[in-house]
């Protein structure tokens, strides 16, 4: 992810369309419409000058990064991932939040909002530990949990 996602500002809908080119073949046919509806809702809610959605790809899959400007730095808040091995999932909040909070003495990032989000997401039984993050898989997570996670994200990181 670029240091400043605004330097290469990509239309979030364009990034989402590119993500689907990798994710749709991975998802079962009956899950595609549901996944599309869920991700459209997340992308639509992630608006503002302090937020950006970017896509990266690798040999492993596609990564739809949701970034937020916090304490003078762009922080990857969470990521939707599509890979053939694990399917489509959400992982976050940023697993590097602790390191980033202490990386530079002159420019620390307050990880409290991301820590609060981590605690909220960890309370959901569908969330699996993923290092310093929580991971949700589309095929295991009901719609009401996706809705709750989005509400918690907006509450913890600001509307």
Describe the structure.
By secondary structure, the protein is of the alpha+beta class. It has one domain. Helix content is 40%, strand content 27%. It is built from five helices and six strands; from the N terminus they run ααββββααββα. The mean pLDDT is 86.
Q: Quick gist of this model?
A:
This protein is of the alpha+beta class and 159 residues long.
Main beta sheet: 6 strands, antiparallel
Overall number of structural domains: 1
Query: What is the end-to-end distance?
Result: 23 Å
Overall SS class:
alpha+beta
Major sheet: order of its strands?
1-2-3-4-6-5
User: What portion of residues is helical?
Assistant: 40-55%
SSE inventory with pairings:
Layout: H1 12-26, H2 29-45, E1 51-58, E2 61-70, E3 73-83, E4 87-92, H3 97-102, H4 112-122, E5 128-130, E6 133-137, H5 143-157
Antiparallel strand pairs: 1-2, 2-3, 3-4, 4-6, 5-6
Helix pairs in contact: 1-2, 2-5, 4-5
List its traits.
159 residues; alpha+beta; 5 helices; 40% helix; 27% strand
């Amino acid at each position: 992810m670029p240091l400043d996602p605004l330097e290469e500002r990509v239309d979030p809908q364009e990034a989402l369309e590119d993500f689907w080119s990798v994710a749709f073949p991975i998802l079962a046919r009956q899950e595609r419409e549901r996944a599309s509806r869920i991700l459209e809702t997340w992308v639509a809610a992630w608006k503002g000058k302090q937020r950006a959605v970017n896509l990266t790809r690798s040999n492993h899959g596609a990564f739809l990064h949701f970034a937020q400007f916090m304490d003078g730095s762009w922080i990857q808040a969470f990521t939707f991932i599509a890979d053939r091995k694990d399917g489509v999932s959400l992982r976050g909040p940023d697993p590097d939040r602790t390191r980033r909070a202490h990386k530079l003495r002159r420019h620390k990032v307050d990880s409290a909002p991301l820590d609060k989000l981590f605690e909220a997401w960890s309370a959901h039984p569908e969330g699996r530990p993923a290092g310093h993050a929580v991971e949700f898989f589309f095929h295991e997570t009901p719609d009401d949990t996706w809705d709750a996670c989005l509400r918690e994200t907006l509450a913890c990181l600001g509307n």
